[in-house]
Design goal:
This protein is an alpha/beta fold. Helices cover about 35% and strands about 20% of the residues. Strands 2-3-1-4-5-6 form a 6-stranded mixed beta sheet, with helices on both faces.
Length: about 450
């Protein structure tokens, strides 16, 4: 699973700015007012080829009184610390060492987690002296950064990730069976679907949102094929996630998506497609996981309602056009055989091996049908392609002026490769690189 890195510290030290820097996003509200972050925010970060999950927390006041907003923020920060593999303790070098910093440090020492003392707002300062007074906290060497300007943030994460186990990447070679994450909003029937696939009551089913608090891994076989099902807690939009146990379960669900090969996105046929559903689907796409969409509780719709629901789904989920769509009843065990068939298809596509000669021929055909647009007087020249990885499949294209290829043309190539290689059910990544063709000599010898 991806490591979880939590950002904690007293209010107004730049935690949300650091979160945005590490995740290359604007997900956290940032302003020069203390206490803006009350909910926890979470997103995916990456340094080089190492991804991780990062959690932003509100200002941590360990001695806040029960019942206050500050107490709730502290409770959520503690929950993040409990779940984290590493903690970034952020302090403000320009404000200096504060009594609140000492209180947070005392709490962190009791957490048993790896602690990294991050001295923020150190732009323009001598690195050796920027964090000198923070040695008094007894948490190791201070690590000066500037979250606002990005100074030393990548160096910081190199240090943090060096102390953590790398996420599993190539285990599929040794253990070739699909890991399937069952994900979706609360109360759409995820646990009921798990039980229907297993043919027994293995997980708790209760008609109330939030029954599943943790992700549950279950091995099973069907038709001689082995699977691992991951039943996850319901994912809500960040603004709707209020209590600490549910925030804990969201992080587990995001980890489960990262750990899976295929995600089944479960929707409620009786409920309109919402921003929450799109948010869940967006995270699956960001993680690059293969996807099958299961519209559950289909039996509860009248016949005349079904066409309307289908049209609405196709319109609102157009960005998931690569994924198979199934209309099922988990409670009545209807539609499960075709659903698993699509899971097998999506898994095969996600793990597909794409030979370099076939990829290069497909690239040549795509370019002949629609050349990349000119950039000024030059047109990017795409020379050859090879596979750069799987789960999701990555196609690396080499050529000249490839940094000038627009995103619209990248999307065209993604669609072209997916259709050319019949990669139903999986996202596909196209990357561009400049440089000489290492296959030239090999090809010349064959000739």
């Amino acid at each position: 699973m991806l490591p979880i890195v939590a950002i904690v510290g007293r209010p107004n030290v730049g935690k949300s700015t650091l979160f945005n820097r590490l995740t290359r996003s604007r997900d956290a509200i940032v302003a020069n007012v203390s206490g803006l972050t009350r909910d926890r925010h979470y997103a995916r970060g990456r340094v080089g080829n190492r991804p991780y999950l990062v959690v932003d927390t509100g200002g941590f006041e360990p001695v806040a009184k029960d019942g206050s907003i500050l107490h709730e923020m502290a409770r959520q920060a503690r929950q993040a610390m409990d779940e984290a593999d590493a903690i970034l303790f952020v302090v403000d070098t320009r404000a200096g060492l504060m009594p609140q910093d000492r209180a947070v440090a005392d709490e962190l020492r009791r957490s048993g987690r790896r602690i990294y003392l991050v001295v923020n707002k150190a732009e323009g300062m001598d690195q050796a002296t920027a964090g000198a007074e923070f040695h008094a906290l007894g948490l190791g060497d201070p690590l000066p950064v500037s979250a606002e300007h990005g100074d030393h943030c990548s160096d910081l994460m190199d240090i943090v990730l060096a102390g953590l186990q790398p996420a599993r990447e190539a285990e599929e070679e040794e253990d070739r069976h699909p890991r399937i994450a069952i994900v979706g909003r609360p109360n759409v029937g995820k646990s009921t679907l798990v039980n229907a696939l297993l043919g027994e009551e293995r997980v708790v089913v209760f008609d109330q949102p939030g029954t599943t608090r943790d992700s549950i891994y279950i091995e099973f076989e069907r038709a001689g094929r082995r699977y691992t099902l991951i039943d996850t807690a319901g994912l809500r939009r960040r603004g709707r996630v209020s209590d600490a146990p549910e925030k804990f379960s969201v992080m587990k669900a995001l980890q489960a998506i990262e750990d899976a090969n295929v995600a089944i996105l479960v929707l409620d046929a009786r409920a309109d497609i919402s921003e929450q559903d799109a948010h869940v689907a967006g995270f699956i796409l960001e993680a690059g996981r293969a996807l099958v969409v299961a519209v559950n509780k289909w039996e509860k719709l009248a016949v005349e309602e079904r066409d309307l629901v289908k049209r609405s789904l196709l319109r609102k989920l157009e960005f998931l056009a690569f994924a198979r769509l199934h209309f099922i009843s988990a409670r009545a065990s209807q539609g499960l055989v075709p659903l698993l068939k699509s899971v097998d298809e999506a898994y095969a596509a996600a793990m597909a091996k794409l030979p370099t000669p076939r990829l290069t021929r497909a690239l040549e055909k795509a370019v002949s049908q629609q050349p990349p647009p000119r950039h000024g007087t030059n047109r990017p020249k795409l020379r050859y392609a090879h596979q750069g990885g799987s789960n999701p499949p990555r196609v690396v294209i080499h050529g000249n002026s490839v940094d000038q290829v627009p995103d619209s043309y990248r999307r065209y190539l993604e669609r072209f490769f997916r259709e050319a290689f019949k990669l139903q059910g999986t996202p596909l990544r196209v990357e561009f690189r400049s440089g000489a063709n290492p296959y030239d000599k090999r090809i010349g010898k064959r000739r």
